[in-house]
Amino acid sequence: MRKNTSGIDDVIALERAWVKAHRELDLDTISDILSDQYRQIQADGEVIGKPELLETYRGGKRRWEIAESEDYEIRLFGK
Question: Which of 15, 21, 34, 65 places its Cα 20 to 30 Å from the Cα of 58?
């Protein structure tokens, strides 16, 4: 019996879109995927939000020659 994997397939599709967007520096896709409430803690303890993170991409501080994602173990809880 096959499990219902539609939610898992959605998560994998989003992950693949995220990885591709990083490889191609597709800031529109990255922005669409990130929540407006996104927060990231930098190495120095500074907390930045989505606008500041996107600016680091625009400023050339981030770049990926290789970005891959292929092994997944996904569990969905609730709705």
Answer: 15
Q: Can you read off the two tokens belonging to residue 42?
A: 């930098």
Listed residue (76, 52, 11) closest to 19, CA to CA: 11
CB 39 within 8 A of CB 49: yes
Entry pTM: 0.74
Residue type, 28: D
Tell me the pLDDT tens digit for each residue of 32-73. Answer: 999 999 999 999 999 999 999 999 888 777 777 777 778 888
Torsion of CA 77, 47, 23, 17, to 10 degrees: 30
Tokens of 4: 């219902």
